[in-house]
Amino acid sequence: MILLQISKFIQPVAVKLESWAYASIRFVPNLIIAVIILVVFRYLSHYGSRITEKTLTRASQNIALVSLISALTKITIITTGLFFALGMLGLDKTVTSLLAGAGVLALALGFAFQDLTTNFISGAFIAIQRPIKVGDVIETNGFTGKVLSIGLRSVKMDNFAGQHVELPSKDIFQKPIVNFTYSGERRIQLLCSVANNENLNFVEGLVLSVINSLDFLQKQKPVELNFTKFGDNGIEFEVFFWIDQSKAGPGPAKSAAIKAVKKAFDENNIAIPLQKRGPEPPQTKDQA
């Protein structure tokens, strides 16, 4: 009687174990195939990452961008292999849950780090389009300086005053940029004036001769001189000339031009009218 009761208890357990063993045996081939898929995609991710890195290195000098895209390529290939392996094991619902969870997580991170994401995307576009390069002298967002480094998050500049300026990539990407190095050429504007009684034709010929004698001038482009208006103290004019930046920078070139014009005016007794000063502020009792 006792043996019969034990037999009735053990028989369902034995049947269940047998079914599990049979299912396990059927599951082994799928498990082997899933492991093979993971191994194959692991090697594909390695080679895909290397190919992406080599290709992008030729197109961009931004190491941070190249490394980021290379890493994303590797992660994408491995993730794809993982989904294939889970599907081979019959875990389709798990794949769907992972995709849904990844979407929700990406959306949450996008809202939480909106500014950071915008900076990274802007930095990526700067690296791809390359409107600026390391070493360029640019003006943007109210700052002028030499580009020291271009990252995904920010661009660092030297403002020529011993200070480093770090600007977010989105500000560089979304706002106007004046690149003084892009064409390799630079035009200088010189403002001046002469007295009303001076011979303007003589003044024009003299200034053009002086500017054209400067050794850092670009001889391929002509010097322009235009009289602009009758001022309060004389007749104002402006001079435009192009310089070879390998010989002189904008500041030294403009300084040399001013000194040369002043010397020529002094030698030919041409007067430069003095600018009128505004009314002086009234003195206080303490100053009196």
UniProtKB/TrEMBL annotation:
What's the source species for this entry? Answer: Dyadobacter sediminis
Q: Mind naming one GO cellular-component term on file for this protein?
A: plasma membrane
Task: Output the Gene3D superfamilies linked to this UniProt entry.
Answer: 1.10.287.1260, 2.30.30.60, 3.30.70.100
Residue stretches making up the Mechanosensitive ion channel transmembrane helices 2/3 domain? 72-114
Residue ranges constituting the Mechanosensitive ion channel MscS C-terminal domain according to the UniProt record: 200-272
Protein name, per record: Mechanosensitive ion channel family protein
- Provide the topology term for how it sits in the membrane: Multi-pass membrane protein
Q: Which family does it belong to?
A: Belongs to the MscS (TC 1.A.23) family.
* UniProt lineage: Bacteria, Pseudomonadati, Bacteroidota, Cytophagia, Cytophagales
Which coarse location class applies to the principal site listed for this UniProt protein? membrane
